[in-house]
Amino acid sequence: MTLIARFYSAVDTAKDDGGYVVRLDGKPVRTPLRRLMALPTEKLADAVAAEWLAQEDVLDPVTMPLTRLAYAAIDTVCDHRKRVVSEILGYGQSDLLCYRAEAPAALVARENDAWNPLLDWAAERFGARLKTGTGIAFVAQPAESQAAFARAVEARDDFTLAALHGAVSLTGSLVLGLALVEGRLAAEEAFALSCLDETFQNEAWGKDAEAEARSARLAKELAATALFLNVGRP
Question: DSSP assignment of 164-179, as one string?
């Protein structure tokens, strides 16, 4: 990936007709498709501005997750909303929380204790009751549950959809993604639940440095997604 040299000195925010904008040397930031990056709240604009201010000699997109999510909301979700919704709902058809271990008994119990309350919450909150199974065989979910999830997802605004897409991709679970969006779970809780099996294996066999580094990176990304949600709500 080619990094762009930092080309600005000052970063600030301003109110615009379309929302709040981040300005670089007085000029508002635009998305890769050259659209105005208009943000829904002043707090989100301030958080995005902080990312731009923190850049040093070059702009590193890896260190700018809030900016990337804003770009996704404005450029991707806006133009491809149906595709994004479909991708999100795909996680509900094969949700991580529905695939359980057959053994050992300690892992089975841990999955039940940690994941069942979230499935119960999804059934109560959205009317989406999911089936579970063991092993890797596909578990077909009720059509009415998928329809309920569709209603819950389609109702979200573009910025929330961008964050939800990121959350379900990071956790492998639509239930966990919606729990994060709804404030049912904090980012740390959602990530820990998504890594329950790996954590159990690490406890039994020890940690792998490479896997740990990847896990830390994903956890940080999910935390940024949660921040994007929290400060982006009007």
Answer: HHHHHHHHS-HHHHHH
Q: Give the pLDDT confidence of 19-42 residue by residue, as tens digits.
A: 999 999 999 999 999 999 999 999
- Residue 65 falls inside a structural domain: no
| 208, pLDDT greater than 90 | no
- What is the C-alpha to C-alpha distance for residues 68 and 174, in angstroms, rounded to an integer? 21
Together in a domain, 43 and 86: no
| Within-domain flag for 110 | yes
Reported pTM: 0.95
Q: Edge-to-edge, what's the strand order for the sheet holding 11-16?
A: 11-16, 19-24, 27-28
> Six-digit token pair at 170?
């990071």
Cα separations in angstroms, 220 against 65, 174, 187, 196, 202: 10, 19, 9, 17, 20
